[in-house]
Amino acid sequence: MSLLVVDTVSKRFGGIQALDGVSLSVGAGEIVGIMGANGAGKTTLFAVIAGHEKPTSGAVRLRDRPITGLRPDRICRLGLTRTFQIVRPFAGLTVLENTLVAAHYGGRPTRDRRLAERRSLEAIERAGLADRRHQPSGTLTLSGQKRLEVARALAAGPDIIMLDEVMAGLNPTEVEDMLAMIARLRGESGITFLIIEHVMKALMHLSDRILVLHHGKEIALGTPAAIAADPHVLEVYYGGAA
Amino acid sequence: MRAIEPIAWAALVAAGIAVYLGGSVYAVGVAFSLCTAVALTQSWALFSALTGYVSLGAVVFYGLGAYVTVLMFGETPLLLVLAVAALAAGGFAFLIGWPVLRVRGPYFVILSFGLAELVKNLVMLNEDRLGQFSRMMFAAPDLGTLYLLMLGCAIAATLVAWLVRRGRFGDGLRAIRENEEAAETLGVPVTRLKIAAFVLSAIIPGVVGGLATLRTGYFEPSTVFDPTISLSVVTMALVGGGDDTRGPVLGALFFLLLSEVLWARLPQLYVIVLGVMLIAFVLFLPRGIAGLLPKAGGRAT
After folding, report:
1. CA A241 distance to own-chain centroid
2. Cβ(A40)–Cβ(A211) under 8 Å?
3. Domain assignment of residue B50, yes or no
4. Closest CB from B167, B172, B299 relative to A101
5. Which residues in chain A have Cβ-Cβ distances shorter than 8 Å to B183?
6. Looking at the partner chain, which of A89, A105, A121 has a beta carbon nearest the beta carbon of B187?
7. B182–A113 C-beta distance less than 8 A
8. Do the Cβ atoms of A93 and B179 come within 8 Å?
9. Is the ipTM of this complex over 0.95?
10. pLDDT digit string (tens) for B90-133?
11. What 3-state class would DSSP assign to B225?
12. What is the pLDDT of residues A54-89, one digit of tens each?
C-alpha cells in the first residue's frame, strides 16, 4: 500500500495552470525528489499536499484516507508535515521552544511537558542543533534556521516530511552536512521524504525516485539514473533553447 | 531570586485583603481601581500579547458587562447578574471571533477599535429608543463588597494568565504570534486556539465592567465604552511587559503611582509625561518593566 497518493491533481491560479494532472504514489520509507525549473509547480504541489492550497481538481490520500481540502494542522496531526523554502522560525522563541510547539501539537500531540521536551531534544539532536538549543531562533545562521525547520518537522513526529529546498543558500560544506543528515534520518527513523531541491547533486544522491515537473506537468518519473538519461528531461533542462 | 516570587504574589494578595479589612474608604477606592486595571490588563495581555493580535477594543467586553448589569440589576441576585455579564462578554467574543480573527496585523488593530465603537453606538441607539439618556442604579452593594469581588477578578485573571502561559495552550498561542502559517503546519489548530483565547480574554472584563458600573452607580454608554479604557489597558501592558504574568500587575501599579503623584502635583503635565514614557518604553524597554526582572517560571533543560 502506498503511504501517500497524489491522484491527478490540478491547480489553477487565475490564468496560470500551476499543476496539470500530476499523479504520484509514494511508498513508506521512500525518498522522492521533485525537480523542475522555477515555476514548474513544485512548491504548489507541496502546498496542495500539505493543505495550504485546495486543488482545483484531483485528490490527495494519506494511508488511503482522503486529505484533500483538510487544513494543514489536521494533515500534520495525521502524520504529514513540511518545511518552508523561506524559513519561518518562531523568531522570538528559542530553538527548544520552537520544537516544543511541534511536539505538543504535531502528529503525536501530548500535554505532558516532559514527554514533549524529550521528543524536542531528540529532534534537535538529530538536526544537529543540540549546542544551540537555548539560542533565540531569530539569531541562528541561515544554515541553523534550515536545520531548525527540519528539527521542528521531526518534533512533530511525522511519517512524511516534505523538505522544500532545505539546501538552498547553503555553502558546499553545509550542503554535505545536510545531505548526510537526511540520509541518516531516513536510515534511523524510516521517515518518508519528499524533497524539492535545486542542488542537483543532492537530489541525485538522496532520491530513490525523482519526479520532474515542467509547466505543472509531469515529464518524467523514475530512478535518478533513468532521469539523468531521459532525453525529454535533458531537452527541457539543457537543450530546450530552440 | 526565584524563591522571592511566590512570596511577592502572596504579599500582594495579603495586602489586597488587608485593605478590605482595615483600609480607609480612600484606600479601598484606590485598591479597587488597581484591581480593575490588573484584571483588564491581564485579560488583554492573555490574548493580545500572546497571539500578537493587538486589540484596541478591549473596552467592548467591559462595556457589554456594564450594560448587562445595568439592565438586570435590581430584581436579580448580584452574583447571577455578574455571571450573565461574563457570559454576555464571552458569548460576544465567541460570535465575532471567527470572522474578526481572520484579519491580522494593523487591519485587526483598526477592526478591533471600530468594533468597540460600533457596539457603543448600537447601545446608544438602543438607549435612545428606550428614551434613556443615562441610568442611575440604586441600592448597589457597598464599596467593600464590590472591592472584594474586584480583587477576586484580579486574582482570577492573573491565575488564568499564568496557567495559560506556562502550558501547551500558551506555546500554541506564541507560535501563532511568531508565525501563524508555520504554526499551522506543525499541527497547531490556529483558529480554535485564537477563538478560545479571545473568549477567555473577554469573560473577566465583562464582570469587571459590571462591578465598575455598580461602584459609580451610574451608567452612560459613552463612559463604559470609552476608548480611553482600551488605550490605557494597552499602555499598562506595554509598560509592565506583555508576555509575562508579572507585567500587567507592574504596569497597573506603575500607573497608579504615576497618576497619584502627577495628578496631585502636575495635573497639566500628566498626559504629556504619559506620552513621553510610552515612547521611551517602546523604544528602550520593549519587554516592559517585567523585562528587567529575572525570567519567570524556569524552563531550563
Report:
1. 30
2. no
3. yes
4. B172
5. 73, 90, 101
6. A105
7. no
8. no
9. no
10. 999 999 999 999 999 999 999 999 999 999 999 999 999 998 87
11. coil
12. 999 999 999 999 999 899 999 999 999 999 999 999
Q: What is the CATH number of the domain that holds A196?
A: 3.40.50.300
Structure letter (DSSP) for residue A136: B
How many structural domains does chain A have? 1
- For residue B42 the three cell numbers come to 491581564
* β-bridge mates for residue A5, sequence order: A25, A61
Q: Extract the runs of DSSP E, i.e. beta strands, from chain B.
A: 135-136, 218-219
Distance CA A112, CA A128 (A): 24
Residue of A nearest to B175 (CA): A90
What is the distance in angstroms between the CA of the first residue and the CA of the last residue of chain A? Answer: 42
Number of domains in chain B: 1
Domain that holds residue B55: 13-226
Contact yes or no for B151/B35 (Cβ under 8 A)? yes
Task: Judge residue A225's burial from the number of C-beta atoms within 10 Å of its C-beta, 0-12 exposed, 13-18 middle, 19 or more buried.
Answer: exposed
pLDDT confidence tier of residue A6, bands split at 50, 70 and 90 = very high
Structural domain that includes position A89: 4-239
| Closest CB to B185 among A50, A93, A113 | A50
Q: SS3 for B293?
A: coil
B63 min Cα distance to partner chain A (Å): 34
Closest CA to A210 of A194, A189, A224, A191: A224
Cβ contacts of residue A177 below 8 Å, gap of 6+? A128
Whether the CA torsion B288, B290, B291, B296 is positive or negative: it is negative
Q: How many CB pairs under 8 A join A and B?
A: 91
d(CA A203, CA A208): 9
